[in-house]
Amino acid sequence: MRFISSTTLVLLAGVASVPVPMCWAADYPSRTIRMIVPFAPGGSTDLVARITSSMLSEPFKQQVVVENRPGGGTVIGMQAVATAAPDGYTLLFGSSALANYPSLYKKLVLDVQRDLAPISLVAFGPYLIAVHPSLPVRSVAELIALAKEKPGQLNIGSAGSGSANHLAGELFKSVAGVNIVHVQYKGGGPSLVAAMAGETQLIIEPIISAKGYVSAGKLRALAVTSDQRSSALPELPTAAENGLPGYEASYWLGVLGPAGTPKDAIAKLSTTIAAIMRDAQVKTQLAAQGVEPIGSTPAEFAARIAADIQKWGKVIRDAGVQPE
User: Which end of the chain is more exposed for a tag (fewer CB within 10 A), N or C?
Assistant: First the structure.
């Protein structure tokens, strides 16, 4: 692969006076890497983490083993990485949920920007704005018009207070200027069931979770929430195209390490992940999970985290969101 040969050339060119950190990087990784996923096995994040770790194992010639550490709204997994030795052998496969953490919780056990080192974005995924088929709307513009005609009479379900789709819904209400009642459920499954039963009229849900129900006619998809159309549903417009300019909500997945992880290890991981995300087979595998591969530099990833902390922090404060 191109990134392997270019790295090798750099190392060979400077072999006569290689500083200690570069010697360390040339040997990295020399043993198994743990990739901690702060979610239970079997979900979309876990599956994307396993695809990524499997693809990392090949160029590194070392196992990259996924270890699930669910609980505490992803805090347990994040803390396990933040307190690990900063040697490049314990990594976090995190999600955009970590950018919500500073604004959701008053007592912080960690500072995500201080205690974690961004390495690379892996993928991002849009949500679907979907309604119960009985609702007489075919576009986001019509949904907004109906909500304004019937303030407080439409319900939107979520996986729980402070969950990603709850915040996406609060942002929708704010940008659209509508009064829609939030109904929280104990997880994404129950909120989907409620939407299909007509208990709630609206739901904003990851593509991977809702696509099958849309195909079966149990939900009607109006738009995707990203600023670009999704390759998983290219015929579906974005919310901005469909009546709500200025609205964008998407989630990301990415790899981080403990603060203090050597820069050479971070650079090697970042370069390798970015190359993996350009692989056609990986693109196909990720598309099946409703996400788009991206890859990034550590600086780009850090900037995305900082921007999301600001964006979703404002949504959380303005809506008075309290975690469960």
Answer: C
Could you read off the pLDDT of 151-182 as tens digits, one per residue?
A: 999 999 999 999 999 999 999 999 999 999 99
Q: Is it the case that residue 319 has pLDDT exceeding 70?
A: yes
CATH number of the domain residue 260 falls in: 3.40.190.150
Helical segments of 119-183, H only: 140-149, 164-176
Domain-located, residue 239: no
Sign of the four-CA dihedral 221, 224, 229, 231: negative
Give the Cα separation of 293 and 134 in Å (integer).
35
| CB atoms closer than 10 angstroms to residue 60 | 17
Residues facing residue 184 across a β-bridge = 158
| 241 within some domain | no
Asked if residue 120 and residue 258 are part of one domain, the reply reads yes
Beta 292-293 vs 155-158: how paired, if at all? unpaired
pLDDT at 19 > cutoff 70: no
In this structure, the answer to whether residues 119 and 254 fall within a common structural domain is yes
Distance CA 72, CA 241 (A): 37
Name the H helices within 41-130. Answer: 44-60, 75-82, 97-104, 112-115
User: How many domains does one find in the chain?
Assistant: 2
Q: Cα(198)–Cα(215) distance, rounded to whole angstroms?
A: 17
Q: What is the pLDDT of residues 195-208, one digit of tens each?
A: 999 999 999 999 98
The residues near 222 (Cβ < 8 Å, ≥ 6 apart) are 128, 129, 130, 131, 137, 138, 139, 140, 143, 239, 242
Tell me if 276 is assigned to some domain.
yes
